[in-house]
C-alpha cells in the first residue's frame, strides 16, 4: 500500500508541510498548486526537498477550466498547460490532475471535451506527463465520475486517464459500484476524503467539512476495495479541505491522516496489523497532583480507601468495589493542578494491544520502572493522556497491582458495599480544540471502540461538542468533548464517572462525609416535576443532593457531580434498565452550575 | 416601536443577559426556558430583576410537543402546561410560545391539533395567560406559518393567537404576503432573525447561522412591514441562535442587536432617525505610535511630506496628493506598537452624521481639545477604531487642517506629482473574532455604505474571512476581515491602501527611497505568465517590485505591499478601467509572503 497526501490538507508553508508528511511516514505527496505559488522555494528546490525527505511527488494539482471551450479560448488554455508542464518537469512530477470545468464559457459537448482532453494528453505525452481527469461534484457540465470516465474513454489516449475522488463520488450519492467497469490501468489516481453526513450545498461541504477516512459517514473503504478490484495500483492519497486542519499543527495532522489511511488499508484488506485487543473494563484512572490532600479528602468522602502504595514511586492506590484510582504526586510537574493523567484498561492481550498501537502510530510512553515492577505498557493519546494496557490479577502474568503494598493505615481491599461505588462507568476528557476528530479515531482505531454521534451541548458561553466512544457492552466508555472556544490546556476539564446501583445512598453518604456536591437550581426540579410526576419525597431528595434525571428508550439515568478540584471532578451515576447515554439533556444545567459555582465557590 | 430580544441570543448566565439587554436599551425580553432552568434565580427573583431593570417580560418560550397527540398523552401534556403556567405567574409573564410539534407520536390531524390548542388556551385563560402558536420550519406536520394560522383560526379562542418568526417563514421560501390575511390582533408575537443565504438543512441553518436583521440575506424589513399593515401592535423581538454570539460578550452583542432593530425600524418606516450623511472620501488615516521613526521613514519613502504639526497635540500631518496621514505619538499607550487608531471621512453634514451615529448607539468619543481647535466629532467603531466626520477645507466652517501649522523643515502641501500617491484607496481592519458581522452592520448603518459578499481567503494557517463595505462611487472603501483563529488584539493587522495612476513608478520610487517592499515568490510570476501572456519587461518589473495582478469583468488591478511596522502595513494600488475589487485572488500569496517575511525579516 503506497500512501500519499495532498499538501492542501495541512497547515503552514510548503516546506513545513513536506517535513510533516515525511515525518509521519507517508510515501508520497500531491503538490497543491497554490502551495507552490505561495512558496519561496523554486520547483527544483521542492524536488530536491522531496527527494531528501524520501517523498515521491505523485501528482501536481489542480489544472482548472481547460476542456470544451470555444476555439479562441483553446489556444490560450493549451499555452497555459504548456507552462504548467514546464513547472512539472522542474518539479519532477509526471501526473497532472485536470478537474472538470466550472467556467461559464464551457460548452455542454462531450465530444468537444474529449477532443480537447486528447489534444492536452498529446502535448503532455511529449513531456513524459500523464493527465488524470476528475469530475468535480459541482462541475458545470461534467460532475459525476462515470460521465468523466465516458469522456476519457471517448478521448482514447494512453496519456489520459481518470482520477477518482471519494468525496466527489459519495457526496453526490453516486453508486461507486460502477468503478468496477473502468479498466484499472485507466484509473490514474485515487483521492480519498470522508465527510460527516450533512445536508448542505456540496461546494461548501467539500471546502470546509471534509475529514479523514473513518472520521465521517462515507464508506470510503468500500470505494477503495472496488477500485482495487478494478485493478487500480496507484497510491491511496488523502485530499482533505477542513477548516480545523488548516489551523492545526501540520505534524500532528499528518500523523492523524496516516493513521486514518492505515485503518482504511486494514478495512480494505490491504494490510494486516495486529487486531485490536478490545478492553473489557477500566483497570484504573490515575490522577496527577502535587498536592494530594484535596483529592484524598474527596476520595475518602466518596467511599474510597487507600489500599496500598507503589513500592518504587510516589503513587497511592485507592479502591472501592472494582473502581481503582491512583494518586500520583511524582509526575504532576508538567501540568497545572490536579489532572487525569492516565487511564488503565483491562486488556485481554496487552502485548498485542501495544503492537497494534505502535502499528497505528501511537507514541509508546517510555517507562521508568524498577527491576521488580510488573511490566506495564502505555501509549499517549492525542491529548497526552496515557493509556495503559492492563491485565489485573490474571493468573498467567504479574499484575501491576503487585507493585503496590499496604502500609500502616491502609485497609485491605474490600468487596463493594451496598450503596457504594461499584466501578468506573466512564471517563470524560476535554480535548485540545484541533483534536476532536483525531481523538475519536485514535480510540476507535486502537481499542476497537465504536463512536456515537457528535452532540452539541449548550454551555452558557458557547456550544460544546461531545461524542462518546465505547465498547459494545459498555465496559469501557470514554466521552470526548471540546470547549466552545480555544483556551489554555489547564482549563480543559476532565472527569471520572463512578457507577453505583443506588445513587441516593451513595450521594447522601458522600455529602455526609463532607464531599462538596454541585448544587443544581430549583428551577430544574420544577421542570423535572412538570415532565415526570415524581413523588414529593424523591423530588426533595434529588433537589437536596443535586441529582439530575434523564430517560432514553431503554431506561433511566440518575447522576450528580462533585465540585471541581484543579481540572478534575467526579460524577456519580446510576444506570437503570440499560440506559445507554450520558445525560446529555442535563449538560446545559450542569455546565451553568459549574460556571456559577466557579464564580461563587 | 417596542423592542425585545430572546435571552437565548446572548451568552452567559441569565442575570448577565438581563443586565446587558437593559443596558443596551431594549424595552423587553423573551425568557428562554433553558436560561431559567439553569439559573440560580427563582422566577420571582427574575421578575424583580426585570422590573428593576425596566424590562417587560414579553414572552416565555418555548413549550414543545403539545398538540395533536393520542388521548393518553394529552392529560400528561396538559399537566405539564399547568406547571409552566405556574412558573409564568411567578415570573409575571402572560404570553407562552408553543411551537409546532416535532414529536414522533404527533398525529397529522389539524382538527385534533386545533382541539388541543383550544383546550390549552382555555386553561391558559384561567391564569390570565395567552398562547402564541408558531410553526417550526422543521415541525413534524405543521411547518409553515399559514398552516399554523389555519389551525389557530380553527381553534377559535381569544387566548390563542399565532407567533410569526421571520427565520421559519423566510428559510422555507414561504411568501410573507399571506401575513396580510391574518387579523392583526391574532398575531400575538413577532420574532425576528436574519440569516445568510445558504443551501443547508434548515435545522442546522437555524441553530448555528441565524444573525441579526441586516446581517444576512432575508428581507426581514419587508416581512415586518406586512405584519404591521396587518395590524400587529406587539414588540419587534429578536431571536437569534448563532455560534459566535453564544461566545461573544453579552453587553456588546446586545448593543449590536438593538442597532440592527433600530435600522430595521427605520427601513420599515417605524422611526425616522437622522439620515446617513454618506461620505465622499477619506479625510485622513491616523496612526498611533510611541516611536514614530519607522513610520516617518516609511511615509517619506512612499513620497509623503510632513506639512504641519498640531498646535496643541503631539500629532504630525503628512500629505501627498489628497492622501493625508496623521502620526500621533500622544495616544499610543493603549496599544502595542504602531496601529491604525482613527479614520477621518469627508462628510457633507458632520453634525447629522454624529446625530445618526448616536441614534444608532455608536459611542461618541470624548475629545480633549484646546479652545482654539476646530470642532471635530468622532465615534468608536466596534474594534475601537475612531471614526471622525470631517469637512476638510470647506468654506463655511473651520477645517480640522487649520489646527496644524508648518514648522521649520515642513513643506507646503503640493499637488499630486505624476506617478505619486493620489489618495487613500481603502483601509483594511482586522476585526476582533466575534465582531465581524457587527462591524459590517456598523459601517453600513452609520455611513450608508453597502456591503459586498463575504469571502474566504486562504492564509497558510487557516481561512480568513473578508468583506468590503464601500460607497457606491468607491470614494470610501473599508475592508473588514477576521483572522482564522482568535488571538490577541495586538496581532490584528491593519493596512492603508494608497491609490496611484502608475504603480510601477510609485513602487520603484518607494523602493529606491528605501521602502521595504514585500517580496513575492517567483512561482507566482510563472503562474501569472501562464495565465496572461505578459511581455518579459513587464513581468521582470513586477517580479522585481513584488507587484501582484488581478482582473475582473471591468478592468485590471495592480498592487504591492510594504513590510509591516507594528500591526500596520501599506499597500500601493492601481485600478485600471473601473476594477472594483481588492485583489482577493492574490490574498493567499500575500498572506504567505507576510508569514515568511515575519519569520525571516
Explain the overall architecture.
Two copies of one chain form a homodimer. Helices cover 32% and strands 24% of the residues of chain A. In chain A, strand 20 (462-470) and strand 21 (477-482) form a beta hairpin. Chain A is α/β, with parallel strands linked by helices and 601 residues long. Chain A contains 17 helices and 25 strands. In chain A, helix 4 runs parallel beside helix 5 (110-126). Chain A is elongated and about 90 Å long. Chain A starts with a strand and ends with a helix. In chain A, the strands form three sheets. In chain A, strands 17, 18, 19, 20, 21, 22, 23, 24 and 25 form a nine-stranded mixed β-sheet that branches. In chain A, strands 1-2-3-4-5-6-7-8 form an eight-stranded parallel beta barrel, surrounded by seven helices. An eight-stranded mixed β-sheet of chain A has the order 14-15-13-9-12-11-10-16. The longest helix of chain A has 21 residues, at 71-91. Chains A and B meet through helix 2, helix 4, helix 15 and helix 17 of A and helix 2, helix 4, helix 15 and helix 17 of B.
Helix fraction of chain A, binned, reads 25-40%
Number of DSSP strand runs of chain A: 25
Principal-axis shape of chain A equals elongated
Query: What gap, in angstroms, lies between the N and C termini of chain A?
Result: 57 Å
Low-pLDDT regions of chain A: none
Structural class of chain A, please? alpha/beta
Oligomer: homodimer
Count of helical regions of chain A: 17
User: Whole-number radius of gyration of chain A?
Assistant: 28 Å
Main sheet attributes: strand count, strand direction, barrel closure of chain A: 9 strands, mixed
- Integer average pLDDT of chain A: 93
**Largest interface chains and counts:** A-B, 55 and 55 residues
State which percent range the strand residues of chain A make up.
15-25%
Amino acid at each position: 500500500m503506497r500512501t500519499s497526501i495532498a499538501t492542501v490538507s495541512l497547515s503552514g508553508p510548503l516546506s513545513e508541510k513536506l517535513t510533516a508528511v515525511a515525518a509521519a511516514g507517508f510515501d508520497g505527496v500531491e503538490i497543491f498548486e497554490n502551495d507552490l505559488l505561495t512558496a519561496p522555494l523554486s520547483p527544483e528546490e521542492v524536488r530536491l526537498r522531496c527527494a531528501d525527505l524520501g517523498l515521491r511527488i505523485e501528482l501536481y494539482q489542480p489544472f482548472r477550466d481547460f476542456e470544451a471551450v470555444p476555439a479562441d479560448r483553446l489556444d490560450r488554455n493549451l499555452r497555459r498547460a504548456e507552462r504548467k508542464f514546464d513547472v512539472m518537469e522542474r518539479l519532477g512530477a509526471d501526473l497532472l490532475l485536470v478537474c472538470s470545468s466550472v467556467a461559464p464559457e464551457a460548452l455542454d459537448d462531450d465530444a468537444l471535451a474529449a477532443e480537447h482532453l486528447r489534444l492536452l494528453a498529446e502535448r503532455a505525452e511529449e513531456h513524459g506527463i500523464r493527465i488524470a481527469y476528475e469530475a468535480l461534484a459541482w462541475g458545470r457540465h461534467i460532475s459525476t465520475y462515470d460521465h468523466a470516465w465516458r469522456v476519457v474513454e471517448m478521448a482514447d489516449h494512453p496519456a489520459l486517464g481518470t482520477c477518482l475522488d471519494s468525496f466527489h463520488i459519495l457526496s453526490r450519492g453516486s453508486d461507486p459500484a460502477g468503478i468496477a467497469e473502468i479498466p484499472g490501468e485507466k484509473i490514474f489516481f485515487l483521492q480519498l476524503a470522508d465527510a460527516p453526513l450533512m445536508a448542505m450545498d456540496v461546494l461548501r461541504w467539500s471546502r470546509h467539512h471534509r475529514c479523514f477516512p473513518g472520521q465521517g459517514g462515507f464508506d470510503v473503504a468500500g470505494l477503495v476495495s472496488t477500485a482495487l478490484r478494478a485493478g487500480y495500483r496507484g497510491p491511496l492519497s488523502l485530499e482533505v479541505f477542513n477548516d480545523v486542519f488548516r489551523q492545526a499543527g501540520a505534524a500532528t495532522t499528518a500523523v492523524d491522516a496516516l493513521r486514518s489511511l492505515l485503518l482504511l488499508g486494514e478495512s480494505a484488506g490491504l494490510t494486516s496489523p495486529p487486531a485490536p485487543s478490545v478492553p473489557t473494563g477500566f483497570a484504573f484512572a490515575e490522577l496527577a497532583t502535587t498536592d494530594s490532600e484535596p483529592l484524598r479528602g474527596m476520595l475518602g468522602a466518596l467511599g474510597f480507601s487507600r489500599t496500598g502504595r507503589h513500592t518504587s514511586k510516589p503513587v497511592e492506590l485507592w479502591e472501592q468495589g472494582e473502581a481503582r484510582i491512583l494518586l500520583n504526586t511524582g509526575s504532576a510537574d508538567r501540568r497545572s493542578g490536579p489532572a487525569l493523567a492516565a487511564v488503565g484498561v483491562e486488556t485481554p492481550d496487552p502485548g498485542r494491544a501495544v503492537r497494534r498501537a505502535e502499528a497505528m502510530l501511537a507514541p509508546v510512553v517510555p517507562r521508568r520502572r524498577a527491576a521488580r515492577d510488573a511490566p506495564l505498557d502505555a501509549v499517549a493519546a492525542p491529548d497526552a493522556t496515557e493509556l495503559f494496557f492492563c491485565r489485573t490479577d490474571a493468573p498467567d502474568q504479574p499484575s501491576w497491582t503487585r507493585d503496590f503494598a499496604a502500609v500502616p493505615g491502609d485497609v485491605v481491599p474490600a468487596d463493594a458495599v451496598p450503596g457504594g461505588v461499584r466501578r468506573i462507568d466512564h471517563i470524560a476528557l476535554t480535548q485540545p480544540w484541533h483534536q476532536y476528530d483525531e481523538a475519536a479515531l485514535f480510540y476507535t482505531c486502537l481499542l476497537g471502540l465504536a463512536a456515537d454521534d457528535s452532540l452539541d451541548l449548550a454551555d452558557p458561553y458557547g456550544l460544546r461538542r461531545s461524542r462518546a466512544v465505547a465498547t459494545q457492552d459498555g465496559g469501557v466508555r470514554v466521552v470526548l468533548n471540546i470547549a466552545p472556544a480555544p483556551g489554555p490546556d489547564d482549563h480543559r476539564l476532565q472527569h471520572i464517572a463512578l457507577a453505583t446501583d443506588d445513587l441516593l445512598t451513595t450521594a447522601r453518604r458522600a455529602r455526609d462525609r463532607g464531599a462538596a456536591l454541585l448544587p443544581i437550581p430549583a428551577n430544574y426540579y420544577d421542570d423535572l416535576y412538570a415532565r415526570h410526576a415524581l413523588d414529593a419525597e424523591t423530588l426533595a431528595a434529588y433537589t437536596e443532593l443535586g441529582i439530575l434525571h434523564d430517560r432514553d428508550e431503554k431506561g433511566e439515568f440518575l447522576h450528580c457531580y462533585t465540585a471541581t478540584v484543579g481540572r478534575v471532578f467526579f460524577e456519580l451515576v446510576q444506570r437503570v434498565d440499560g440506559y445507554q447515554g450520558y445525560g446529555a439533556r442535563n449538560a446545559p444545567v450542569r455546565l451553568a452550575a459549574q460556571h456559577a459555582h466557579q464564580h461563587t465557590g
